[in-house]
Amino acid sequence: MYVRTIERLGLGLGQPPRDPQSQQPALLKTFTSSVIAYKDSRGQCQSTKCLIYVPTKLRNQPKIDVLVFFHGLLDVCDNAHNFDPVKVAKRFRLDDQVEMAAQQATLVVPIILWNSEDRRSGIIRAAWSAAYLNALVEEVLAQINESSRVRPELERLILAGHSAAYDILTPLADQFDCGVQETKKGALAKLHKVLVMDTIYRTQDAKALERWAGNLFWDAEFTLVLGNSVKADQPPAIWKRWIITRGKGELPGNLKVLKTSDGHCELPGNYVRSFLEGRLPVAKAK
Fold it and tell me: Where are the beta strands (DSSP E) in the chain?
């Protein structure tokens, strides 16, 4: 399959390193995935455009952390994205956040072609199953290899999702709950952190998140960030409803929650860096 790739330097655009053996500038690269490809509900073949951003300090490193960011319904937060992963990353300052973070990770931003028909039919869920997510991370490492002196090894996997990303994260959590083999190998076997920002739109999303955190016996960290909406059908109210519904009993100790005064669309731009650095003012989930 033909894979279209666009590559350019990130910070210090057009300025080569002073020493060929020294640290190179950040890498910003886009490509069309040959892994996340499917027929939509209209019978049309769809591919997935992706951005890779390797921060300056991670260039040519033998081991790297990888952060995959799943965006929500783009039209809700930005009408000028044009399904361009670079514009999505800029909208939420994701590249700046991973570049400036004390604990850095390579950023991966896939474009998700949300539509109600594909969501209802399960096409999106199937396209982003555990097996395909593992394969995508391998594809990303190979893409980095094409632009670097070394093919990095994955140290740890970090997942972040916003808003409608529950259509990917909740089924993935269910696969962990069911012990699907693909969740125990590849990138998902190295899952280190999960950040979910306003992704709780149904009690089943809240339940799946709790069970996902509880099922991981290693030190994986789960953080739920809730925006300032007071509407009954929005994440803060749904989470509160779930806590009441589930009754007494301790929630997983590795599941934390942060309730903020920030608007829904501002969450990714405000909290990814702090999450990477482990300095979100979170408390035990309640």
Answer: 5-9, 27-39, 45-54, 63-70, 106-110, 153-162, 191-197, 221-226, 255-259, 283-284
Question: Angle at Cα 159 formed by Cα 262 and Cα 141, nearest 5°?
Answer: 135
Q: Are 196 and 223 in contact (CB under 8 A)?
A: yes
Cβ atoms of 88 and 81 closer than 8 Å: yes
Number of alpha helices (DSSP H) and beta strands (DSSP E) in the chain: 10, 10
Tell me the backbone φ, ψ of residue 218, rounded to 5 degrees. Answer: -90, -175
The conformation of residue 104, written as its DSSP 8-state character, comes to -
What's the rounded Cα separation, in Å, for the pair 68 and 270?
A: 17
Burial of 84 (0-12, 13-18, 19+ CB in 10 A): middle
140-194 confidence digits (pLDDT tens):
999 999 998 889 999 999 999 999 999 999 999 999 999 999 999 999 999 999 9
256: left (phi over 0), alpha (psi -120 to 50) or beta: beta
Q: How far apart are CA 162 and CA 137, in angstroms?
A: 19
One of 3.40.50.1820, 3.30.70.260, 1.10.10.10, 3.40.50.300 is the CATH number of 5-9+23-284, namely 3.40.50.1820
The domain locations on the chain are 5-9+23-284
Question: Distance of alpha carbon 80 from its chain centroid, rounded?
Answer: 21
Q: What is the pTM of this model?
A: 0.91
Q: Is 156 helix (H, G, I), strand (E, B) or coil?
A: strand
Beta bridge partners of 61: none
